[in-house]
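Colleagues,

Please find the record for the two-part complex below.
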Amino acid sequence: MGKAILVQGLRKRYGDVMAVDGISFEVQEGEIFGMVGPNGAGKTTTIECIEGLRRPDEGRIEVLGLDPQRDGYSLRERIGVQLQEAALPPRLKVAGAMDLFASFYPHPMDWHSLLEMFGLTEKAKAPFDQLSGGQKQRLFIALALVNNPDLLFLDELTTGLDPQARRAMWNLVRSIREQGKTVFLTTHYMDEAERLCDRVATIDHGQIVALDTPEALIRSLEAERRVVFEVDGPLDEERLQAVPGVIRVERAGERAVVYGEGDRLLSICGSRSRPFSPSSMRR
Amino acid sequence: MLILFGSIYGNEPTPLFGGRGMVDVSVPAYMGLIIVTVGLMSVPIQTASSREAGVLRRYQATPLRPMAYLIANVAGNYGMALLGILLLLLVGKVGYNVQFDGNVPSVLGGGTLGTLAFFALGYLVASLAPTARIAQTVGMVLAFPMMFLSGATIPLETMPESVRNVSRFIPLTHVVTLLQGLWFGEGWGEHLTEIIVLVGTLGIGTAVAARLFRWE
């Protein structure tokens, strides 16, 4: 399977702020790739550089084998873009918007089926400014799919949606991937990334902090566990410290806290439960 | 446009302007008023607020060329201006049996030149203004003095010499003068100054606006 996106050493500065500070990654065809991070971490700048909407200061970007700056127009015929912030003319009707955007592409899809897929058929005659937040969001995703793109960008797809609408949106994204499309999405919800993505890049202060499958990322977050218990009388801290897997031991009055490596710590507690009986276990 | 008709009805008494009635002189002048309204108020507000709301960004994410967007936008606004002018002519003809000595293609051509020149100024304002609110303010600040000092609302013949000297530097004056001339059957050759000013405005305005045009 080929590469859908290649990013090497991407940098983008706004004034004094380094929005993206040396990011590199690859996205394979057919995967759902997520970028997670707090607001202002550089997610949107990264995605917009890849879409060709922003010019990077430094770095190499290749999308579907094209340079987003040089081959912007031919690239944009093959990608679908849902922007974090966008609008349509307030009086433009849903059907009119689909028609208009279909006219921008040489081989558009039949947009009626898209409206059906996104539950907007009944709203076809409604003007844009009378749609609810969720309906607007669904319309923008439908518009992003009108050219039957190979690669779909979703920037903060479920921000501002209620839990039910979010779940429905996740199912839609999965069904889009099942059609063989690659999906690149950003989110600040870890649970969204966990449920949707094949691989996740965690980004903060313009840099990738971690890049792995969601399962592996969550495992690594849980790398350090601690066991808290109460002790009557003396505690042989040195003996505890010497146990493999234990990082350190703290004692405050009757309370003792043992920090250790993930699952190994639990097994220690299990096997040596007689001298130490944990009163509570926390992550 | 309703304001326009109101002021037309208010102009019922017809003192003579070189043997013509007030309304006869006013109808071509009001065409200038429509042109400045659409060009300096509708165009900048529409463009800047589309940009502010993120409509233009959404277009930018498609293969749509900026030129295609601009042409479609100009065509839409041109249609608006033309509709306004046709209504004005209808009211002039039906209401006042206005005197017309020119030929239709010629007046239409002059109107188009003036309209496009003012659209270029409008897009220029939209490109320079950081927000829709500022675009609106700048558009109005430019439009209102032009309306009153160009002969579009108050005939220049009634103004003192000093005002008429100022008005020579206002682009709208040239639209109004050209349209009135063509309306009363004068040839294009008699209005070379107006044509040069308007073609220049159109050319420079378009070039600068195209260079400064922003999707976001």
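The mean pLDDT of chain B is 85.

Comments are welcome before we finalize the supplementary table.
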